[in-house]
Design a protein that fits this description.
This protein is of the alpha/beta class. It has helices at residues 2-22, 31-38, 53-66, 85-95, 128-142, and strands at residues 26-27, 43-49, 75-80, 105-110, 113-118.
Length: 146
């Protein structure tokens, strides 16, 4: 039974990573990758991915669809909580003391500084469209038109 569960979870993780990559997000799997990516100039949307139901049913669809907007970040990035633990810890450290360490979540960065966040409490129990609208409002405020 335990081996079947591990195979099942590996399949879920693989699918979750694949969904983010197909949506144009760069996977950050090490602390070094996180440091380099979050230091980039411009705006970056970081999605803290997870295997929970609200990540699969709400957050990843929102991440995929929110970027189809006139204004959007220069960089789309993702770390995977519970899978790439050191990378996620590094990202959360860079996000700053005000960051709520929740997953799934979104953090909008500008020139290496966190400027806005959508926490799990703003994802779980909401529909994907309301999360998309919330993220796009952040794009409107902080990002340049393409």
């Amino acid at each position: 039974m335990n081996m079947d569960f591990n195979l099942f979870m590996n399949d879920i993780v693989r699918q979750a990573r694949s969904e983010m990559e197909a949506s144009g997000y760069e996977q950050l799997t090490s602390p070094e990758e996180v440091e380099q990516a979050l230091a980039r100039k411009g705006t970056s949307l970081v999605m803290v991915n997870s295997v929970c139901g609200c990540a699969g049913g709400i957050a990843r669809p929102a991440a995929a669809n929110a970027v189809h907007y006139d204004k959007r970040p220069d960089h789309l990035l993702t770390v995977f909580a519970g899978q790439d633990k050191e990378a996620t810890a590094q990202a959360r450290m860079i996000f700053g003391d005000d960051h709520l360490p929740s997953s799934p979540s979104f953090v909008l960065m500008k020139d290496g500084q966190a400027v806005a966040e959508v926490g799990r409490h703003e994802i779980e129990g909401h529909d994907p469209m309301s999360v998309i609208t919330h993220i796009q409002a952040l794009f409107e405020e902080h990002c340049e038109e393409l």
